Amino acid sequence: MKLTLSYISIFLLVATLTSCNNSKKSDYATQNDIEEQTIYTASNHPGKKLLENQCYLCHNPNANIEGRIAPPMVAVKSHYLNDDISQKEFADAIWNFVEKPTEKKSKMRGAVRRFNLMPYQVFKEEDIRLIADYMYEFKIDEPEWFKKHIEEESKGKVKYLNDGAKLNDTLISNHQTPEEKGLQYALSTKKELGKNLMGTIQKKGIKEAVTFCNVKAILLQIAWQ
């Protein structure tokens, strides 16, 4: 009975980490809103916040290469983007995999071998398409080592692709409101907790994740209070 409750705790924690922002629907534009507007900048596109809040949990561009639990999102972009693909086709391909990840669907076989298959999670199709639209239209954050790494690892089979408008991070940072700074601190706690949980599930399985939920997650939350 205790083990069953622990499994439920893991499910609720993962669901909270990946979808806790969905309740604030006013923070993000809907797909219809995207179609009605003609111009988005790298800083105000709704896919940017979704990318940071839902994807950087595991695909953080700032994580070092040795301690990663998943490839950076720029690697996903480079594998799924090509010179001939349309924005809709790119979004379709991303959603096709995220909806129900399988090795057969994956275009990143090397990442699957290194990190294992991405665990199934519940995402809104609308959110994933907004994220894909943002990735397609704009240059996204990437690790300093990534360009050289992908060219060497793929031996020319995968092109480095991170096209699009570039975000002026310094300008945006200087204009953060106290509320935005508070949200940033809160999200950093959520990302650290989620990264540890997802890493435990991928590397050690559900039973070890039960231990994580019962002990380590609680300690981490206390440390950030």
Protein model, in words:
This protein has one domain (2-224). The radius of gyration is 18 Å and the shape is globular. Helix 1 packs across helix 10, helix 3 (46-59) crosses helix 7 and helix 3 (46-59) packs parallel to helix 10 (178-204). 26% of the residues are buried. Residues 2-12, 19-29, 33-38 and 167-176 have low confidence and may be disordered. The chain is mainly α and 225 residues long. The protein is built from 11 helices and no strands. The protein has helices at 2-19, 31-36, 46-59, 73-80, 87-99, 109-115, 125-137, 146-154, 169-174, 178-204, 206-224. One of its GO terms (molecular function) is heme binding. This is Cytochrome c family protein. Residues 42-139 form the Cytochrome c domain. Keywords: Heme, Iron, Metal-binding. InterPro entries: Cyt_c-like_dom (IPR009056), Cyt_c-like_dom_sf (IPR036909).
Write the layout of secondary structure elements.
Layout: H1 2-19, H2 31-36, H3 46-59, H4 73-80, H5 87-99, H6 109-115, H7 125-137, H8 146-154, H9 169-174, H10 178-204, H11 206-224
Helix pairs in contact: 1-10, 1-11, 3-7, 3-10, 5-7, 10-11
Task: Indicate how many domains the architecture comprises.
Answer: 1
Main sheet attributes: strand count, strand direction, barrel closure: none
Radius of gyration: 18 Å
How many distinct beta strands? Answer: 0
Which structural class fits the helix and strand makeup?
mainly alpha
Helix content: 55-70%
